[in-house]
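Students often ask what a holo structure prediction actually looks like on paper. The answer is less mysterious than it sounds. You provide the chain, you provide the ligand, and the output is a string of discrete structure tokens encoding the 3D arrangement of the protein together with nicotinamide-adenine-dinucleotide.
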Amino acid sequence: MNELKVGVIGIGFIGAAHVEALRRIPGIEVTAIAHSSDQKAKAKGQELGVDRTFGDYRRLLEIKEIHAVHVCTPNHLHYPQTRDALAAGKHVLCEKPLAVTVKEARDLVKRADASGLVTAVHFNIRFYPLLSHIRAMIAGGELGEIYAVHGSYLQDWLFYDTDYNWRLEPEYSGESRAIADIGSHWMDLIEFLTGERIAEVCADFATVHKIRKKPLKPVETFAGKLLKPEDYKEIPIGTEDFATVMLRFKKGARGVFSVSQISAGRKNRLYFEIDGSKRSVAWDSELPSQLWIGRRDGPNELLLRDPSLVHAESRELIDFPGGHNEGFPDTSKQLFKRFYAAVRAGGPGEKPGYPSFGDGLRELELCETILQSNKRRTWLPVGA
Ligand SMILES: NC(=O)c1ccc[n+]([C@@H]2O[C@H](COP(=O)([O-])OP(=O)(O)OC[C@H]3O[C@@H](n4cnc5c(N)ncnc54)[C@H](O)[C@@H]3O)[C@@H](O)[C@H]2O)c1
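The corresponding structure tokens follow.
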């Protein structure tokens, strides 16, 4: 097997997770990384065991033998870095959101289509095996007609007014925060599982901490201490800590979901229930190896992740036997396996087995409509 060489741009939380997942796939080498400065890139390279490090991602793109690039930087950099990577002839796997505006995302879809290169967005949650099983259940009619879809994506990492991150500044994050950051995963997943499209939305946003305390020194400096007034700057916050969105699907199903970054104790919990005319299903990302199946006229079931108990296509996403838990890092590995199979095959093919740039654009369209709906306090059709 010839080795595929990969460059990763932006080595924060998720960039390091990409490096780790890439190293679990045979025939892939992480050849170089790029970070925000030469010095920081070198330090990250030492931590991760990567020799070629750059403070400017354009130098990484100049390396001829690199086949593919992963873009793992803050949101505002996804557009220019992905555009430049495509121009350099690299296959691109971009983090979500694909860009910060619909206009940018449309441009990337056009460039990707024209290039013939393999391109994907890291909507990794799709790759939990039991979710693939739900998708097959729905496609096979096991749930019947979909009546309703409801759920939430809750986190607590911005619970205190002293919690601070680039995601709080629209210049880096975009105009929406919780919806773009985590609501995008929830909506992508629901459309992917049900095969149904969200046609209309009605949104309500709340900013709990209207002023936050931005540390003036690196956050680690404050670990375990209280911030004193001279340690922070007060920053007005305009993006949503919490949002609720009502949904109408094209075929008539109804839905609602909430996103939150201020829900104490909820570390990173994506939850949904899909109610059909035959059965319901429910799944919680913090207990990813269990699928609840609800019935009206018989006992409910709890299906545990086990290759012998799921539909054939879901079996391909399971690398360990039942009871040997797989989780978040495995979802990226499974997505990357499919992405690099397409790279080896020489192109994306008819039906790519991973989320496309088109799926990234779809999330930005939903997100922009939701922002408008909240501003205008009304229902709005998606894409109008
Ligand atoms: N799919 C998922 O489950 C998932 C999870 C987390 C984050 N993300 C996405 O990944 C992206 C990064 O999020 P994160 O949590 O890793 O953030 P992070 O802040 O931990 O990491 C981003 C890194 O990019 C670096 N950076 C900034 N400017 C750069 C530049 N010009 N060149 C190279 N590096 C630069 C920063 O120094 C930082 O270390 C976001 O867009 C986010 O939405 C996706």
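Residues 9-15, 34-36, 57, 72-75, 77, 95-96, 122, 124, 181 surround nicotinamide-adenine-dinucleotide (CB under 6 Å).
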